[in-house]
Predict the 3D structure of the following.
Amino acid sequence: MSDNALIQSARAQLASARSIAVLTGAGISADSGVPTFRGADGLWRNYRAEDLATPEAFERDPRLVWEWYNWRREILATKQPNPAHDTIVKLEQQWGDRMWLITQNVDGLHRAAGSQRLSEIHGNIWTVRCTGCGVISGNREIPLPILPTCRLCHALLRPHIVWFGESLWEEDLRRCDQAIRSCDLLLVVGTSGVVYPAAGFASMAKEAGALVIEINLESTPQSDLVDLSLQGRAKDLVPLLL
Ligand code: OAD
């Protein structure tokens, strides 16, 4: 099929879907200038995200981990949602409670665009959690002190992010499971499809009978199992679906 025919087919499938779910990854924010995790732009000094985004790394060297998050917060504070984020807001407006967005991104750009029906399954970089009393609070201070502490109990704060080796929040897992199993179309945008549980959502949706459409710059481990795979930039392709 030509690119145009693929897009027409994706539009038609979406238009006839009763209930939809959208799964996004770093690729959707790449078009807003946010570095992705894997690939040439994904590097920070000589570290990989997997070596910093762990409870062990934070225990070993909280200063280094906070330095990394402060660096990312500084970058993210300058970024705006792009037309792909905006289109997903329109999907929410049109499908209402028959639409759910699942994002692996912690950048907050979906919320900034106006999405409300979403699970930020890896957390949000603008939220911190106390390692002592567990209180979770919003925080947009830039930069945070290199070792920020809780106003209430003075224990060390940590980013409210789900790190490698940690479990997703129960409520998020429940919402995602419900959205994936009940949708009749899943749109997967800009994820390399290698980090679980999100990496399993496309096959879960297929098993439950949904049609799966993928949008990515390149092919991924999921491309063979999806029904339609559209290659290109999220900011160009996602708006064409509506
Ligand atoms: P990755 O960095 O692994 O993958 C980004 C994907 O986006 C790749 O498949 C790219 O081909 C694609 N891509 C890049 N630019 C794009 C564009 N303009 N339009 C469309 N696609 C584009 O990011 P994720 O899959 O989101 O976890 O990574 C999953 C998780 O691993 C992240 O949430 C993070 C990371 O470590 C935590 O922080 C816990």
User: Anything to note?
Assistant: Strands lie at 20-24, 99-103, 118-120, 123-130, 136-138, 157-161, 185-189, 211-216, 228-231.
